Structure prediction request, 234 residues.
Amino acid sequence: MTSVSLSNFQNIAVDSAPSQKLTVADGNVQTRQASTSIQGRFVSWLALQGNLDTQKAADQGAFRTALLDKYGETLGTQAYDQACNACGFSAGQNHSLTSKQVVTGVHYADEKLNSDPLAPFVSKVEVKAAEPENHDVASVLPANLLEGNFSVPDNEIRQAAVDTLDVITQFISEKYTPEIAEVVEGRVVEAGLFDELLAEQVDPNNSVELRETISIFIDAIWEEAKKVHIESIL
Prediction:
């Protein structure tokens, strides 16, 4: 099933009552009317008892995927869990998707991004890693770049960049070819990106500032990798 964007869920949810049930049909988010007849309620009860309510599970899965696509695995999962809890359910329970759940999940994620500078960094890395050409890049980044409580001495800022370049070029080697990775690494060094990184005068005790700077460095590496890949097939 094609992923449904988070904005599609939001557009319906913000114009609906909090208790409004939502469902995904034909790739679109729609409101879902509950069965009001005794027969309808009985059928619904039987479906739930037999764990056959696959549509609810599909709706929940689509919403969770939309959150992860927008915010990355870590924050997206946190937002989904918070949204379920706000509606009186745990993330593993089968229940109807509601407007309240959508609004709550998005609000939690946005508030987290605005209040926690680390969250935008992790979210950005994970969203980039989810792109097909960047699959699994987050798993090979230096662990300390994704943790919240570290600082590095001034003379190790360059080493943080070197470590980042090493792991990403290794991934580029596996995703494309070792030759492309070698060219990318050479161009990054020749372009003086390390010097530009250090010229930012990053406070070594400010982990958030360091991550933001390294994030720009990561973007530059990936842009160069795409250029080299295109050049190789022309």
About this structure: Confidence is low (pLDDT under 50) at residues 135-142, 146-155. The longest strand covers residues 21-25.
